[in-house]
Amino acid sequence: MFDKENGRFYDPDKVHRLNYKGRFFSVSGPLNIARSEQGQPVIVEAGASEPGQYLAARTAEVVFSHVKDFDLAKDFYKSLKSKLPDYGRTEDELHILQGISPIIGDTEEEAEEKYQELQDLLIPEQGLRFLSGYLGKVDFSKYSLDTPAREVEFPPENGIQSHFERMRGWIEEKNPTLRELYGLMEGSARRDWVGTPEKK
Predict the structure, then answer these.
(1) pLDDT at residue 167 tops 70
(2) Which residues are CB-neighbours of 34 under 8 A, at least 6 positions away?
(3) Do the bridges between strand 194-195 and strand 20-21 make them parallel or antiparallel, or are there none, so unpaired?
(4) Is residue 200 part of a domain?
(5) Which stretches of the chain are DSSP H helices?
(6) Of the residues 50, 79, 99, which one is the last residue of a structural domain?
(7) Closest CA to 185 of 141, 138, 197
(8) Sign of the alpha-carbon dihedral angle for 173, 176, 182, 188
(9) Which of 4, 78, 90, 115 has the most other CB atoms within 10 Å of its CB?
(10) Residue 193 and residue 187: Cα distance in Å, rounded?
């Protein structure tokens, strides 16, 4: 593999077809990429709920997180890492990959304009559909966009748990309208990540 001196990407005599046929998929193979150093695909998990954390602690090598509050992110880190010993694993065996969406400008004003431009592109119908999925299939058709979220009847813990809890927290803390709520959830970035490179 990768014979630079002779300009050869692979040795055909060393590549064999898998011709795997299983219950859920079949593949002839082989891939056109080399195997990873550990000899198997990296196992990535993205659940922030308690069951998701236990699954990650037992099986995952990387957890993708998009907790948007710094203090909550620290709590999530501690909670997840504390579960590893239950499965005979150490903290350095599981990595957390934090997703962020920074919006950068040469000035604070420019960054704010970019942020607002992206927020304005949110389509209300899509925003409400997005909210509904995360909050347990809520029917928002009987509410206006300016309805305070506290007035909406949400099914108890029937959505994606980490999002459900986060939005319930926002509702209690900020008392947003539905328009503001889907902007908080589906928006392009947290205010913390909007600004100049020097500041952020």
Answers:
(1) yes
(2) 1, 2
(3) unpaired
(4) no
(5) 50-59, 70-82, 108-120, 124-134, 161-174, 178-186
(6) 99
(7) 138
(8) negative
(9) 115
(10) 12
> Six-digit token pair at 114?
């970019």
Does residue 79 share a domain with residue 34? Answer: yes
Helix 178-186 × helix 124-134 angle, to 10°: 80
Q: Is the dihedral of CA 33, 37, 39, 42 positive or negative?
A: negative
Is 188 a residue whose pLDDT tops 70? no
**Pair (95, 120) in one structural domain:** no
pLDDT, one tens digit per residue, over 7-46 is 888 788 888 888 999 999 998 888 777 777 778 888 999 8
Predicted structure pTM score:
0.61
Residue-wise over 161-187: b if at least 16 C-beta within 10 A, else e?
bbbbebbeebbeeeebbbbbbbbbbbb
User: Does the residue 124 lie in any domain?
Assistant: yes
